[in-house]
């Protein structure tokens, strides 16, 4: 980030103030107490009789009260000193201490905050010294020519009309990949760059901005543990504990002397780089899990940090011996879709969050279905298969690191807190990402693969075109060429950052107006660029703007000027066709760069860019639109009739196994749990060890098919990318693991537990109970009771649903079929609980209310459930509870950037109105 003098001075002032306060509490307080109250040590110990008399006599002169205050004051100071010593020992010993409880906890937190802020005094001085040294070295080595600026008093130009050197970035700053500046001298590069931690930095974000993928954060942590830190700044010992002023090293992947190289990659590197498209076994050594929180525990002060781009000299071109691209199954940064589209993990993560947000918004407005014959039926468009494939690739990055899979709510909330993009990974070169900055981007793509590559870049940016993170401007004619058949107009209405202009000239006028507005703001605040303005005023909406358009062959002077000034004003240009004013790439149909021209052409030699087909892009844009709470017209859906979508989940009745051959009261020796994490149980408890990962996946898949599946069906669902022989080996290994573990745990050596008959494999339901089958059998009983018009049996069956549903189906599986059935089962259970409430609410309102409260724990965002709770609470005379329920709904919807609908607001207003008294006649006693 650009660390301005104002922010340095503010940090220094805060640190100096914290240091002064700490000194006053540690030294000044006891001196003042001694002057006013005297020594806390008595000259002699009082006798018991003196103590008794003192306590019994009236305190007319206030001496006893003053003595008590003195004792409390000295005790508090002594506690402060002891806690400070403990924290100092913790820091010197480089270990962590637990957070204390009770009244000591605020004191401990105060000491930690004061110590952290006091380090700003030393780290800021060190940062100023480093910046001054770097600036002196830079001015002595090279001169920098400022770009033509329309403002006479802009930074980089003197008031006398002579050009002056623009401020150079310090060693902690990144320079954009396509920046127009002199490259460093040959041989002067280090295999790493140094970054100074600022407010709000996390290792995950640094890895995302540096390499294009946050999962590579362990490389930064490993390289930075032995870095010498400035005075007063602790060493880096925990990837989640960062402090302002800490220095971290950002190694260049594949450089000599870095932590890895293309020709020699360790098992740890493979784990960190493992991508979702591999579908192969990785090292058994556990890799560190990615940070789950949106921001790490850094400082007491939270200041938004603008995302910075990779360095200009970041090497993405391979050595001459490096192949142009590798097979995607071994590429950790690319995902290949069935259509042939090739996308990056950045787009996969954006689509994963879009799927989560889509489901949450659909839950929010979905009415409760009380028809048992159609429990769980969705009324919306299915999610396209390419989107589900991309989501599965993203979720696999968590599974590869043995990290728990995030829920839809967690994904949507993390995306809500994400910062705006400043760089983008647009392809790969071997095993390394090809990253470009958005501010100052001046890139033209031509050739057979140009439209597909531009389509992939634009599609990845579209989800970020909200909440003032990014603004994409596309002329209408170019939008129709890039996204034929997609509802791009409806999407631009749903996203405030996607601008479709009538023509190229109107797009240029919009950019020029924004450039002048930002220029006036920079001049008024005396700041060098837009990133500095974002830091100075985080509340000012200043999204990164990108023009995506086809420019006439001879170019357009206005577009050239915008591209030249784009870095300072956070504006970029992505051109359809050859581009003489910047870097121009010719692409083959598969995205391979066949020719490169321009100032940064060397960066793209032998690279392969991501690319998208028009049909895949249409499905992705549809999901992005539904993620914002709007649903496209089903009849006018861009999804073709033959385009595959999410698989249809099995019906409830199909998951009921045939009757068991054993006695009714017989208990099976084993039990399979698939509601929640997949586990096997015996009478002695859960089986914690011995079961292979593939075996757990096979058990979960077989639980959805009580009548059995063929081996080819199981291999296609569990190992779709495996070769035929590898798939057979994995299936046989999983089957052997299941049988061996169950025989050892139960002591039964004869049973097979998995039955193979007529070419199909199924779970032996006489030996293994499955919790999912118990739940579906109960739902089937309720369905039969409706057909028999037996209300009592229906109520009795539905009453068991709440206890039998103990969790989502296989909630630790990332497969698309598992997610689809997980969502279907959740909808089914919520509908069943809602049906039960409708049946009993008149006679048993308390039971109905308890069931509804259970239902909203399963479905946090469904407004019809909250509406029914509010009605029952009002009926029971609990007006305060009605308001609390509405407030709870507001808080939960705020997590997905939504708010209660008008119907819920009107219901609250109606229920809060005073009700007329009952028409019942008063009793004789009252008369």
TrEMBL record:
Coiled-coil residue spans: none
Keyword Cell cycle assigned: no
Record field: compositional bias (Pro residues): 307-321, 646-655
Spans traversing the lipid bilayer: 12-34, 64-86
InterPro entries in UniProt: AfsR-DnrI-RedD_regulator, BTAD, LysM, LysM_dom_sf, TPR-like_helical_dom_sf, WH-like_DNA-bd_sf
Positions of region (Disordered): 139-192, 225-337, 362-381, 628-655, 905-927
Keyword check for Membrane: yes
Low complexity: compositionally biased ranges: 258-268
UniProt superkingdom: Bacteria
Alphabetized UniProt keyword annotations: Membrane, Transmembrane, Transmembrane helix
Domain LysM: 193-250
Signal peptide: none
Full protein name: LysM peptidoglycan-binding domain-containing protein
Organism lineage string: Bacteria, Bacillati, Actinomycetota, Actinomycetes, Streptosporangiales
């Amino acid at each position: 980030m650009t660390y301005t003098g104002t922010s340095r001075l503010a940090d220094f002032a805060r640190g100096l103030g914290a240091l002064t306060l700490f000194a006053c509490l540690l030294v000044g307080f006891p001196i003042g107490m001694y002057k006013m109250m005297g020594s806390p040590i008595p000259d002699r110990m009082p006798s018991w009789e003196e103590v008794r008399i003192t306590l019994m006599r009236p305190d007319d002169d206030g001496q006893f009260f003053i003595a008590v205050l003195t004792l409390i004051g000295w005790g508090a100071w002594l506690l402060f000193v002891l806690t400070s010593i403990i924290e100092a020992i913790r820091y010197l010993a480089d270990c962590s201490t637990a957070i204390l409880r009770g009244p000591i906890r605020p004191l401990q937190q105060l000491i930690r905050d004061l110590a952290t802020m006091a380090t700003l005094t030393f780290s800021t001085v060190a940062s100023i010294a480093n910046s001054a040294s770097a600036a002196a070295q830079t001015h002595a080595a090279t001169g920098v020519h400022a770009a033509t600026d329309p403002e006479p008093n802009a930074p980089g130009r003197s008031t006398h009309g002579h050009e002056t050197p623009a401020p150079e970035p310090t060693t902690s700053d990144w320079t954009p990949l396509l920046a127009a500046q002199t490259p460093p001298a040959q041989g002067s590069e280090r295999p790493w760059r140094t970054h100074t931690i600022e407010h709000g930095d996390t290792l995950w974000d640094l890895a995302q901005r540096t390499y294009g993928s946050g999962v590579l954060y362990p490389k930064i942590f490993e390289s930075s543990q032995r870095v010498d830190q400035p005075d007063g700044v602790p060493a880096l010992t925990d990837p989640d504990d960062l402090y302002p002023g800490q220095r971290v090293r950002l190694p260049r992947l594949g450089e000599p002397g870095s932590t890895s190289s293309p020709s020699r990659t360790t098992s740890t590197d493979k784990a960190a780089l493992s991508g979702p498209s591999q579908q192969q076994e990785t090292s058994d050594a556990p890799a560190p899990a990615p940070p789950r929180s949106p921001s790490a525990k850094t400082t007491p002060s939270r200041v938004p940090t603008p995302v910075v781009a990779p360095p200009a000299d970041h090497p993405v071109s391979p050595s001459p011996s490096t192949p142009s691209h590798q097979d995607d199954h071994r590429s950790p940064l690319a995902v290949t879709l069935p259509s042939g589209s090739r996308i990056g993990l950045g787009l996969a993560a954006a689509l994963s969050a879009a799927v989560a947000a889509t489901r949450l918004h659909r839950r929010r407005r979905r009415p409760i279905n009380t028809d048992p014959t159609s429990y769980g039926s969705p009324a919306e468009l299915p999610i396209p298969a390419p989107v589900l494939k991309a989501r599965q690739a993203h979720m696999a990055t968590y599974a590869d690191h043995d990290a728990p899979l995030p829920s839809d709510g967690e994904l949507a909330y993390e995306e809500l807190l994400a910062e705006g993009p400043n760089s983008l990974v647009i392809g790969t070169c071997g095993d390394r990402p090809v990253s470009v900055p958005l501010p100052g981007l001046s890139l033209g793509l031509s050739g057979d693969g140009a439209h597909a590559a531009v389509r992939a870049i634009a599609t990845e940016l579209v989800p970020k075109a909200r909440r003032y993170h990014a603004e994409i401007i596309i002329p209408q004619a170019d939008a129709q060429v890039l996204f034929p058949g997609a509802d791009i107009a409806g999407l631009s209405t749903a996203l405030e950052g996607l601008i479709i202009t009538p023509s190229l000239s109107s797009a240029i006028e919009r950019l020029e107006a924004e450039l002048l507005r930002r220029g006036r703001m920079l001049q008024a605040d005396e700041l060098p660029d837009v990133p500095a303005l974002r830091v100075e005023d985080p509340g000012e909406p200043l999204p990164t703007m990108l023009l995506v358009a086809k420019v006439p062959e001879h170019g357009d002077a206005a577009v050239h000027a915008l591209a030249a000034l784009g870095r300072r004003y956070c504006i970029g240009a992505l051109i359809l066709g050859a581009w003489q004013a910047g870097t121009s790439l010719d692409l083959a149909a598969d995205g391979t760069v066949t020719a490169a021209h321009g100032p940064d052409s060397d960066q793209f030699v032998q690279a392969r860019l991501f690319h998208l087909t028009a049909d895949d892009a249409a499905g992705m844009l549809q999901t992005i639109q539904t993620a914002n709470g709007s649903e496209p017209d089903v009849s006018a859906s861009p999804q073709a009739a033959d385009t595959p979508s999410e698989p249809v989940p099995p019906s409830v009745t199909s998951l009921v196994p045939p009757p068991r051959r054993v006695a009714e009261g017989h208990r099976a020796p084993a039990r399979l749990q698939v509601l929640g994490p997949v586990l096997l149980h015996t009478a002695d408890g859960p089986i914690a060890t011995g079961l292979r990962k593939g075996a757990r996946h096979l058990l979960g898949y077989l639980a959805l098919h009580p009548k059995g599946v063929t081996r080819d069906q199981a291999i296609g669902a569990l190992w779709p990318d495996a070769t035929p022989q590898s798939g057979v080996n994995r299936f046989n290994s999983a089957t052997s693991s299941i049988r061996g573990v169950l025989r050892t745990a139960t002591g039964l050596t004869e049973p097979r537990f998995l039955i193979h008959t007529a070419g199909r494999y199924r779970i032996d339901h006489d030996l293994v109970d499955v919790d999912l089958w118990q739940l579906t059998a109960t739902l089937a009983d309720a369905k039969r009771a409706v057909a028999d018009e037996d209300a009592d049996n229906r109520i009795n069956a539905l009453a068991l649903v709440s206890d039998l549903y103990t969790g989502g189906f296989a909630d630790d599986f990332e497969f698309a079929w598992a997610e689809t059935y997980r969502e279907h089962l959740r909808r089914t259970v919520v509908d069943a609980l809602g049906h039960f409430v409708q049946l009993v609410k008149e006679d048993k309102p308390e039971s109905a209310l308890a069931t509804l409260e259970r239902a909203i724990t399963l479905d946090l965002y469904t407004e019809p459930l909250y509406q029914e709770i509010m009605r029952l609470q009002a009926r029971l005379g609990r007006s305060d509870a009605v308001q609390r329920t509405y407030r709870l709904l507001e808080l939960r919807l705020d997590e997905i950037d939504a708010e209660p609908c008008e119907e819920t607001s009107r219901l609250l207003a109606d229920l809060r109105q005073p009700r007329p008294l009952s028409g019942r006649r008063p009793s004789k006693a009252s008369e």
